Amino acid sequence: MKLETIATPMVRMALTEDIGGGDITTGTTVAEDLHASAAIFAREGGVLAGLEVARIVFRELDANIEFTPHMKDGENLAAGKRVCTISGNARAVLTGERVALNFLQRLSGVATLTNRFVRRVRGTGVRITDTRKTTPGMRILEKYAVNVGGGASHRFGLFDMYLVKENHIKAAGSISAAVRRIKAKERDIPIEVEAKSYEQVKEACECGVDRILLDNMSLTHINKSVEIINNHRQQTRFRKGQTEEPSKPEIEASGGVTLENVKEIALTGVEYISVGALTHSFSSVDMSLLIEEVGPQATSSGA
User: Which fold does the domain 122-280 belong to in CATH?
Assistant: First the structure.
């Protein structure tokens, strides 16, 4: 599905929220037929994300507006760098300013923070992934921004991966009981289990799950858990006479991950590190829109 198809309903909702019964300031102070050319500039460094969403904002207000990008999503921003130029009806440009900037600044903030984590673990082979800790209604765009920043998507929602967490384990009675119920459904959907102790790690291994999430463990506990899982892989290989070491269960770490400790966690041998902060504790990248030229609205002459 194209980003435009996904983002358009979100843009319309945001414009409705902002405009309400009308942009009374712009409608009163700006002539209806005034033409304007404006540019969006970065005011600090970061990674750009959301350019197409900004374009949709202005096109929703003026189908004839010219939106000229000067960068691409994923490129590095710098203070004073021109992101895009918008040319068209002045009222449309001014009315769309804040909504366009809101999307651009926030999505660039997600991409920027993600990229910082990705750069910290470079060379380890570990993938940085997002979580479901997203802004309600904005998940698909925030996960897009994570991808732009070099991160990977974890499950999108509750429907595309089994993730047996602490409360599921308590409700089902045990990890084994929960996994048995899942496997009885015979669905080709990955199964991940959250483990908080060595005993749970061992139990999850014996259940034959696809991935084990080491939740809120210390570095010492992560190292030991990775050793347990790797030993299980070797034993599985020996029992089945495989020539190559099994890749499952995959190993993921989560909980308390920061830019300061993510490299240490990556060096334990995990394959994924999920970071909720990517979409709930990012800082928006500062940008601004400035009008550069105004003049009469261009009119087409008949033949």
Answer: TIM Barrel (3.20.20)
